[in-house]
Amino acid sequence: MSYAEALIPAQPAPPELMKKVTTARIVGHFVVGLWILLGLALLAMMITNWDNEKFFKFGPRYLHGLMTTLELVAFSVVFGALLSVPLAFARMSKNPFFSGFAYVYVYIFRGTPLLAQLFLVYYGLGSFRPQLQSVDLWWFFREAWYCGLLSMTLNTAAYQTEILRGAIESVHRGQHEAASSLGIHKIVAFYKVILPQALIVALRPYGNEIILLIKGSAVVAIITVFDLMGETRYAFSQTYDYQTYLWAAIFYLSIVEALRHLWAWFEARLTRHLKR
């Protein structure tokens, strides 16, 4: 049995390591300083050039455009999610027809710009007015809002298909085998075992897709939809004040930042059991 014959004297704390001053660090601080000065200059300019008449005239229109943007994004995300489920299963199907159809759909809508898809729906399908009237669908395609909703839905469905497919395939094969060994039906195992794990993996990509869709929704203003960007264009045409676009940027930044924090809280809430 051993014992200490003498106390070990207290040792001083190790000296703090001084961070080396490098060229990259200096350049970084300089760039950050420039951004701060630019932000302060913009804030000072907005305060000094404040116009109550413009605020009360165009403020309600901005709020109306904001609500239109949120409605478009919300409906397109929900409808795109519903459409992505059968498409994801078709992508994973062993049937060459279903998998080929889903692959072509995803390839086309992910490989072409949303603006081109919007023009094809609004102007392209709009040229088939007699045929659409014969099947009683002209009421849908003559409205720019519905065409914007359809274009955004088809676009986000392609991205959500790949997100869902990748998340499902990321679940280990052993989960399927364990459920099968317990006598659990494949459908029940999918909804009770596989899908909850897949959705946790897909949470962050889904959040990124919603953020991209919010910013991409501005293109619907080109086809006369008075969303946030559409109302901004109208305000600029009346005032020729570039600050109208600055306010639009602030609105979009606020929406994205609020969604980012909400999604981070939502993700932390659902994955709290995975943290040690």
Describe this structure in words.
With 276 residues, this protein is mainly α. Helix content is 76%, strand content 0%. The chain has 11 helices and no strands. It has helices at 23-48, 52-92, 96-111, 114-124, 129-134, 138-141, 144-170, 173-181, 186-216, 228-239, 243-270. The relative contact order is 0.11.
Q: In brief, what are we looking at here?
A:
By secondary structure, this protein is mainly α.
H and E order: HHHHHHHHHHH
Mean pLDDT: 87
- In terms of DSSP E residues, the strand content is under 5%
Largest sheet: none
* Number of helices, where a helix is a run of at least 4 consecutive DSSP H or I residues: 11
**What is the tally of beta strands?**
0
| N/C terminus separation | 38 Å
- Structural class estimated from helices and strands: mainly alpha
- Radius of gyration from CA coordinates: 27 Å
What does the overall shape look like? flat
Low-confidence residue ranges: none
Tell me the helix content: over 70%
Itemize the secondary structure elements and their pairings:
Layout (H helix, E strand, L loop, with lengths): L22 H26 L3 H41 L3 H16 L2 H11 L4 H6 L3 H4 L2 H27 L2 H9 L4 H31 L11 H12 L3 H28 L6
Helix pairs in contact: 2-3, 2-7, 2-10, 3-7, 4-7, 7-9, 8-9, 9-11, 10-11
What descriptors fit this protein?
276 residues, mainly alpha, 11 helices, 76% helix, 0% strand
